[in-house]
## 1
Amino acid sequence: MTATVYAVANQKGGVAKTTTVVSLAAALTELGFAVLAIDMDPQSALTFSLGYDAGQMQASMHDVLVRSEPLERAVHQHAETDVAVANADLAGAEVTLAARAGREFRLRGALEPLRATYDVVLIDCPPSLGVLTLNGLTAADRLLVPVQCETLAHRGVAQLLETVADVRQLTNPDLRIAGFVATMYDSRTRHAAAVIDDVAQRYSMPLIGVPVRSSVRFAEAPHAGRSILRYADRVPGAAAYRVIAAELACVPVDAQVRTRAEGRRT
Amino acid sequence: MTEFDRIAPPPTETGPAQVWRRIDGRRAVFSVGGDGPSAVDRWLECTVRCDRCARQRSVSPTRLLLACVPFALVVPWRTHPLLARCPACGQVAWLRVRYPAETLEDAADPR
């Protein structure tokens, strides 16, 4: 068994990268996969969303990247997924690593011993082009791009793909684009559908699963330290992430779940 | 003009000027040299341009020597006179080697 590593990235902030990582990790765990989610964002939203306060943890991703601590020291076992926690110290890693040769390969090296332990690894990248994002893209086999269904997130995809071209040339020629996840979808607007169509056509990038409909439950779930799948199982967004997880894992999608994901009554 | 035409897809073909602009810009984040060395490193590295993959890479002399093992051939009259393993694509290819490594200014000046 060797893990498939997904980097979840978009250079635009607030497009539901962390929500996508938490929800997909939970959905893939439901399907029976061993999942590790890695928080590479100094805002540590992933860590918080799963109920942890990384300030009180023995080790975090900062220690892994800067002090070469083993990755398993930063890993905690949540009921829905294993998670490698981060805190604000990770911002310092950008500066500390800036002068080190081979800085893009720190996460890849740290992840190597754990690749046999997990089926899927999801890396939550920060919304910027820096050392941390490059570490995520260099360690990944595939890239998953959350796209909020609006113009600026669409533009973030164009910028990210330029970075991906650099990464392929310089640090990770095997990086493949799995596709994009359409987030915060509002079926009442034509603009949302137009963004999805244009992203798919302009970049020849497949939409994974179905668009994830917006819901206030997504905003509430982090407070409870649970994913949307446990916090509000009945909202269409939860079903959408189940469909996306099933498509990524190449397992059949339950028809009822797909119907619910599309916002239709079952 | 459609709704999203101001959002351009990433360029697939780039000229040397664009490549060097990228090195100065977002590629400065990378520590590994894809196309050119920093001004400080140029005396520690050579620039290798591959006739096969068309990429240019800065490598240490030691790495260049390793690329010549176990097989290398020099044909001085060729524009790419060294047949060895390309450090960029890993294939045996005709290479052009420059020492000290080329800088941005060298690339901008065709002389």
## 2
Amino acid sequence: MAVITVRQLLHRPAPGGPISANDPLPVRLYGPNGQPIGLQDDALKVALSGSKVARVATQLPGNTTSGSPGRNVNFINEIAAATTVIIRDTTSPVIIESLYLLHGRAFTFSDLRVHFYLRDSSGNLRFVPVFGSDDPSNDGGFTNQYFSPESLKNAGGKSNLWELVAWNVDNHRQAIWRMLTPITALHGYRLVAENVNQSAAIMVRFQVDIREVLLS
Amino acid sequence: MEELIRSKFTVLQGIYDGEDGFCFVVDGVGYIMPIRVMCEYAASAASISALALKALDPEDTRGWHRFFDAWADQGVIPAA
């Protein structure tokens, strides 16, 4: 494992400085000559000198079928009726650098819900609420704990966590949506997809593309 | 069916708007499902076996056949 200095690795706006869990955005890593690191075919782990260590994840565990190093590409051909698929569940501290959801073939958009939870320091799952879903009868509570392509479409394509990048309005065939911003999950996170239809599977090619940077 | 689910699977209390769900793994992927939905489905089955449960939905519209097969392979329910 090659050890490279922070200044060699980080391409980041002023004022710069070492990697910090509280300063997770400049996570794109570059080599001394400006070339991106972590996109080559070979496994790559990068340690920063001192106690602050960043590691570019290569092959992540899960239902991986293909993909370049550092990416976890899951293909789900269907989501069974009334079933929640656990797409990713980790307790490792990570920065979710990018997270894309892609699906094709016709289905009812409102049948699909995606739930995203951050873990707290005790390992409990804390859902990320939908802005605007405050429950007046429950102070601090929210009515919606999920996101769906249908709600995103109705909201003009954007929510506080997800953006509907593109979708086919004809028969709800394809959609691409992504997480709006990198998120630091210091104690891990869980991403699940739920089919709320209790009598029919969603026959969809559902692809999730996550790029994580592990913090350790 | 509910007794079997609660004794054989990990139960997540209240995960579905207050309803309990149960967890299982098929082909390395984790799933969660409401207990009530599975109990309602299985209520009209001739027996609690993979064969009988699949017979309720012969076209596999729900996509549950592979779950029943996996549970039979795992010894949770009999195959027939």
